[in-house]
Amino acid sequence: MKKTGLFLVSILAGGLLFLAMTFFLFAPKGDPAAPLANTPADLTPSPDARQNDILLHGYDLPSAFQLVVEGYAFDRTSFPRSGLSLSRLLGRSDGLPPTFQLVSPFHQQGTYTVSDFSAVNLTALAEQLPVREIGFTYTSGLGLSFGPFPLYWAPASSPWAWLPGSMISIVTSSSAQGLLAVDAPWTHPKVYDLTTPDNLAVHVPDTSSSIQLAYVVQGFLFQEDFATGNTQRWDLTSAPTTTSLTMDLLAWSPNGAYLLGSPAGNADGAKAQNKLWALNQASGKMTGFSVNRTHTFTDPLWSPDNTHVVLIERFPPAANAPARTLAGQYLWVNLTDGKMRVLGRFTTTDDLTERTITWDTRGNAHLSVTSSYKVTIAGPEADAGATGKLSLAKGSQSVLQLDLISSLREAGLTDAFLPRLTVQTAWFSDGRTLFLVVQADEPPADSSGKRPTFFGHYNLAASQLFFTSPLPGDLRSDNPAPGSSSFGQVGLRPHPQRPWAFALLDDCRLAIYSPLDRSSQVTGLLALDSPYLYADWHGDKVLAVSAHGLFLFSDWAVPRNIGTASAPPKASRTLLFEPNPGQTINKAIALSPDGRYLLLPLVTPQADNIFITTLQIVDLALID
Question: What is the pTM of this model?
């Protein structure tokens, strides 16, 4: 009896010792409640022949986490198929032990040291990390902020996006995202494990009823009441637990009465019970439609009563069609009785088609199709005598070609600048006037370091292309040409109602001008101390963002002729918001779909491309 008792005590002691060792070896170091603890232990195995043993596997990495090793991040789908070995973790050149990190904005950050050659259970480690509260703070006259929280940022990545209903999706990996609601914030964001971010649709009702979410996980469709969390589920395949659907279409009708869906045509999509289906919210019944399972269904246009919808049905073009040809048809669907008919087919080499649907009192759809104008620029060749062409097309039909270089020469451009020109174009709100700004990328040796800038416009009705004389010397830029990031968020921007526009002269300066006036008068110069990250009209003012603040420009000068020697004075500049010390505003700025909120990501860099992030949500309705 005593031997048996000692034996049991030994087993118990050994088990406790094993658990203690396991926790010591792989628990996150430092206080797990500390939000950004980053203190790895100093235990490491001696390098030997076992360095190629696989220690980390992607199949047990939870979808809400990224695993970071030496500045590289892996999620569950991008994880190396063969796993990660000790030799991969021993890339440090500072002599410190090999470590890895589990990073998620929704959990405390964990840093771990590899202390033996056993495979690491990432699921168990992640379960030890407490759920993180993403706090929110109101700032009077500005809006709301969420954070701080840790994020791994790859170069040029933007890990969030706006959804309907003033909701923000934070994408932490290829399959997981968390939702934050600006209008009804809470501290614990809801996290959804999705095949792709496209597998989520949000309906925001006009009334006070709750936001409805629809999302597809594996082969299941879930519908969730966002306020209560109550969830319903439907099977989209006969074996939903063994499939992983990606949705080409998941969309609510405007009144929320129907949910429309269509899975992608991949191997798992072929297992779906219906290629195109509609879920009736009143009855809870899902109706499948008889369509070609190899086609793609997108872009719903709804009838006023939401009982009919027109979809684009895409299919492969003819074998002898030109490259990049798009083929398809407009499919009308009656959701009440399942009847369908084709309204018209299309074949085009561009995707600038505008569809106008009108509905009669019997629910019949009438389709009219037009194409937007497409502008392409063929730049000058290396020799100074070459000509640059601006081509204008509508649909697949060429409308005209404009000789830019001849017009620029008439306005004063010298041949020394010809090999290096940048052309920006934008349409005025009348849809018939094209604005142009032409700049030299680099100044030639005899230009005193100044790059000329020409403002121009082309009027479709008058068939006239006009460029101004170059800016006077004190308005020309001796700074580098605007970078691609500035062009993407700033560039050339016409005013939505007035005959004004602003154009980026260089990374730090905008010019306000009147492009429809043949004198092209420059009315203001908007300068920042660091490069523009974002700019847009805010009424008759200009809202601008740099890495160091949010600014509002107003009260620029009375118009002055662009050809005079005197330049317009700088506009009045008001600082609306400034990041805290150590923070900067990242260029991944995003405007909400309704135009009310501007998301400013405030970041503080840490090691291994991990950034402590706060999302400042600026309520533009509060800015005068």
Answer: 0.78
